[in-house]
UniProtKB/TrEMBL annotation:
Entry keyword annotation includes Oxidoreductase: no
First-listed, main subcellular location of the protein, grouped into a coarse class: membrane
Native source species: Streptomyces diastaticus subsp. diastaticus
Name of the molecule in the record: ABC transporter ATP-binding protein
Domain of life: Bacteria
Subcellular location: Cell membrane
PROSITE patterns: ABC_TRANSPORTER_1 (PS00211), ABC_TRANSPORTER_2 (PS50893)
InterPro entries linked: AAA+_ATPase, ABC_Ni/Peptide_Import, ABC_transporter-like_ATP-bd, ABC_transporter-like_CS, Oligopep_ABC_C, P-loop_NTPase
Topology in the lipid bilayer: Peripheral membrane protein
All copies of domain ABC transporter, residue ranges: 5-254
Alphabetic keyword roster: ATP-binding, Cell membrane, Membrane, Nucleotide-binding, Transport
Gene Ontology MF term list: ATP binding
Assigned protein family: Belongs to the ABC transporter superfamily.
Length: 326
């Protein structure tokens, strides 16, 4: 197993109290595999990823439990200098907002080249050649000329390709992409997603795609973990989730995807808002928003029930949801 996150716990200490941002999350990704982590903002999906990357454990965030095994070795006890080497060389992250992740006063060639001068000790000239090669690989047209341009001279989609090139530069084993296409329009979204999937296959990398939009990951993910209020509520192979979700929250997310065959129909939206992490509802955290909630849901936290060997749901009534009308 490439990455194995086990029972991760992350807390945020705020003036109002302690927020449990991640509460016992476990997931895994193998080489060549794509895991989509799905959820609304505040579900803990980004925080979990930041913990994996080792860019989280500074106040107010604290990792208070669990393990993050990378190729079998727990990363959490590592000192920051060791951790920094893992980050970049072995795992890399792509963020939503390329413009604020890139340095506006350096050419993209200099920024890409820096990966090779700093981490690989290359000369500036060789690093520049590598930068052009990378830009070619992420299909930026006229790379040899554009390597000397600044981030603002590129479109949003092209900038996101540059971010992918940066992440790929040292050929990491794992890439985590946090809402990589959210800021882009729909056609560009699909192209960028395709590029990521293609590079992932070519290099046999593990890929974690973090998104609030089940629609964008359908074609590229192998499996999905759905998060709500700091926990995983459903995990399954992607096709199973689309065929029949086993958790009412997943069903709500599925029903909120616009569908071409249902144009004109009013789009479903899950009622209410995700909970305040300082006041997570007792029992099933989803119960105030769940159309299927019963009395027991208010008091008993549902465990992750095994639906089948590849699939789990944290709903007391998963069977009903699974068999319910589509
Ligand atoms: Fe809904 Fe109850 Fe299932 Fe939670 S446990 S998702 S409230 S039916
Ligand atoms: Mg986020």
């Amino acid at each position: 197993m490439l990455l194995d996150v086990r029972d991760l716990q992350v807390e945020f200490h705020t003036r109002e109290g302690v927020a449990k941002a991640v509460n016992g999350v476990s997931y895994s990704v193998d080489a060549g595999e794509t895991l989509a982590v799905l959820g609304e903002s505040g579900s803990g999906k980004s925080v979990t990823a930041q913990a994996v990357m080792g860019i989280l454990d500074t106040p107010p965030g604290h990792i208070t439990g669990g393990q993050i095994l990378f190729e079998g070795r727990d990363l959490l006890p590592l000192k920051e200098d060791r951790r920094r080497k893992v980050r970049g060389a072995e795992m890399a992250m792509i963020f939503q907002d390329a413009l604020s992740s890139l340095n506006p006063v350096l050419t993209v060639g200099d920024q890409l080249g820096e990966m090779f001068t700093v981490h690989r000790g290359m000369s500036r000239k060789d690093a520049k050649a590598k930068a052009v090669e990378l830009m070619d690989r992420v299909r930026i047209p006229a790379a040899a000329e554009r390597v000397n341009q600044y981030p603002h001279q590129f479109s949003g989609g092209m900038r996101q390709r540059i971010m992918i090139a940066m992440a790929m530069a040292l050929e990491p084993k794992l890439i985590i992409a946090d809402e990589p296409t959210t800021a882009l329009d729909v056609t560009v979204q699909a192209q960028v997603m395709e590029l990521l999937a293609e590079l992932q296959r070519e290099y046999n990398m593990g890929l974690i795609l973090i998104t609030h939009d089940l629609g964008v990951v359908a074609d590229v993910a192998d499996k999905i973990a759905v998060m709500y209020a700091g926990r995983i509520v459903e995990t399954a192979p992607v096709d199973d989730i689309y065929r029949a979700p086993a958790h009412p929250y997943t069903r709500g997310l599925l029903d909120s995807i616009p569908r071409l065959d249902q144009k004109g129909r009013e789009l479903y939206a899950i009622k209410g808002l995700p909970p305040n992490l300082l006041a997570i509802p007792p029992g099933c955290a989803f119960h105030p928003r769940c159309p299927q909630a019963r009395e027991v849901c208010r008091t008993d936290v549902p465990p992750l029930y095994e639906v089948d060997p590849r699939r789990r749901s944290a709903c007391h009534f998963w069977k009903e949801t699974l068999d319910g009308p589509r």
